[in-house]
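Lecture 7 notes: from sequence to structure.

We start with a single chain of 323 residues. Read the sequence below before looking at the structure.
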Amino acid sequence: MYNIIWDIKFKTNGTIYSLQTVSSIDIECSVDNLADTAVITLPEAVMNQVLNIGNEVARGSEVVIKAGYDKTLQAEFVGYVLDVASNDSSLKIMCEDALFIFRKAVKDVELKNTNVSKIADYLVKQIDPSFKLVCDYDISYEKFVIHQATAFDVLKKLAEETKANIYFNTEKKELHIHAPYLEKGGEVIYSMQRNVEKSSLEFKKALDRKVEVTVESTNVAGKIESYTAGTTGGDKVTLKVGSVSKVDLKKIADAELIRRSADMYEGAIDTWLIPFVQPTYTAKIKDEDYPEKDGKYYVVGVNTSVSESGGKRTVKLGIKVSV
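Now the structure, written as tokens:
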């Protein structure tokens, strides 16, 4: 029998505070979202004494959440306090990863003959040059304009247009930009009969999911260029992007096609805090009842909940990466 434990520390104005009382911790991570988030819920009062954390925890305070069993702790979330709110007889501390510090405005600029890597590097140098850019998905632009925008606004636009997975490793101070489902963070093994508490997975075959993706771009001369990938007659998807180079329209179309039409699982599995897993991990699924579905699947998202009653992970799976 494992005993759930946790450790939550805040750093405010150079002073470190440890949180002693917690009702629940909920952490949401996904390669489809720019930010990982956490919500720490506290009782509004303890022993009839109202909790007052205003001096120790405030917007911008650094936060590290660790959790695990017995004496083994694992860093589950590193980020910043976004807000502290009183709600329904409880206090909620809303937290966000390093995207929090990228919500600042950046200088207006018109970049010509540029690419995703150069645009992201422009943002990093203005917000926090100590961050390292890890980018292997260089979509090129004939022109990219930043006007009255935050670094968050620009990253959001890049994610929407290029279909890249954009996320932060706050602990290592890294901004990651990758083609969908290519970055490999680690590997875990799940047996449907042994370490999966509940499953809502539904297997989808590529043969049954016919999609035709068209990406349209308007170049600096005002001419519309396009590229189409997928199966003629399938569900039609049209994406409109900025002045992306013609050769890179194929990359974007192929990335969206993978998201929509590869062999994959839809749904999630509920498991415990062991084994540790994060988005970008590969999950090896074993099912004694349906061995034809065995294989390795890309972990798209992980929601982790911790309270006195125990710890749970809801692991969302994506495309099948191998048998």
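Helices lie at 116-127, 151-162, 246-261. Keep this in mind for problem set 3.
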